[in-house]
Amino acid sequence: MALNFENDEQKKCYETLRKEIESIVKEVEYDELYGQKLTPDDQFYKEGVVDRLVFKFCKANQFQLEGSRAQLKKTLKWRKEFRPLHAAFKETPASSILDEVCAVTNSDKNDANKKVITWNLYGLLVKHKEVFKDLDGFMRFRIGLMERGLQLLDFESDDNHLMTQIHDYSNVSMWRLDADIKKCSRAVIETFQQYYPETLYAKFFVNVPYVMSWLYEVIKMFVSEDTRKKFVVMSDGHQLKDHLAVVPKEFGGEEPLKSLSIANVEPNAYVKYLLDKDSE
Ligand code: HEM
């Protein structure tokens, strides 16, 4: 696994924060990030995984120690309260339609960091806009999907420590973007930005009708420049083939998304342990 530093200052930021992990965990009284244990034990802890996660927080903060430390602490505190693992593995979706329009796939044949993909076929929600009325329910589902994706990554690898996300917007030209949708998307965008730094490799927006491209210009203002650079907007779903070796039938491939997707992502041993402890 390679952690690439451009200079000694970056390395120093990383090494300082890495050494502080145990005291941070003690301070916030929470020892879990993306389903991984942060402090040593002889059962669940993987040193290389924690190295990678700490690096992500430093990178997202341009290797400024204060900002990296603050974001990490905030993230752990948020996880303690929001319980994203519970959302991912213990809760049923607020609306069953959400399960039908969202999926996670894992295709080894795709290039580096495009193996694990979360799919949001938001265009299919045209007749189910009520799901956006329940902000909390929508958030818990969307964050749950994110966490299931994270479980499939390998933080010790160089080619599978980031995920790709796809939004399909077919049918949306008939939509009015109402206040509920705006509220839900803003909330998810902010949560990802604050609490999931350096987890995304690329985000593809497909079947975006030409008449809706103005919306892209609006939404992208809420997103940091670093994240924006990862976005690719396509008017046709078949253009996905230019980016992925394996695409579902709906986008010109062989197998339908439903058969490619993983219905039940298996949580790792530490996550199982935490969830069991939680329900005692
Ligand atoms: C983000 C829903 C239309 C571009 C989001 C998010 C939601 C959402 C829930 C939060 C992030 C996520 O779930 O991953 C919708 C709905 C639409 C719509 C229901 C129906 C009208 C569009 C259109 C575009 C667009 C037409 C144009 C390309 C974006 C962008 C983000 C986003 C750039 C930010 C992604 C991120 O920061 O992760 N949308 N959207 N959306 N959407 Fe849409």
Automatic annotation (TrEMBL):
Gene3D superfamilies: CRAL-TRIO lipid binding domain
Superkingdom to which the source organism belongs: Eukaryota
Domain CRAL-TRIO residues, every copy: 138-259
Catalytic activity line of the entry: a 1,2-diacyl-sn-glycero-3-phospho-(1D-myo-inositol)(in) = a 1,2-diacyl-sn-glycero-3-phospho-(1D-myo-inositol)(out)
Location in the cell: Cytoplasm; Endoplasmic reticulum membrane; Microsome membrane
InterPro entries for this protein: CRAL-TRIO_dom, CRAL-TRIO_dom_sf, CRAL/TRIO_N_dom_sf, Sfh5
Assigned keywords, A-Z: Cytoplasm, Endoplasmic reticulum, Heme, Iron, Lipid transport, Membrane, Metal-binding, Microsome, Transport
Cofactor(s) this protein requires: heme b
GO cellular component entries: cortical endoplasmic reticulum; cytosol; endoplasmic reticulum membrane; plasma membrane
Ion transport is among the record's keywords: no
Function field: Non-classical phosphatidylinositol (PtdIns) transfer protein (PITP), which exhibits PtdIns-binding/transfer activity in the absence of detectable PtdCho-binding/transfer activity. Regulates PtdIns(4,5)P2 homeostasis at the plasma membrane. Heme-binding protein that may play a role in organic oxidant-induced stress responses.
Family recorded in the similarity comment: Belongs to the SFH5 family.
Name of the protein this chain belongs to: Phosphatidylinositol transfer protein SFH5
Lineage: Eukaryota, Fungi, Dikarya, Ascomycota, Saccharomycotina
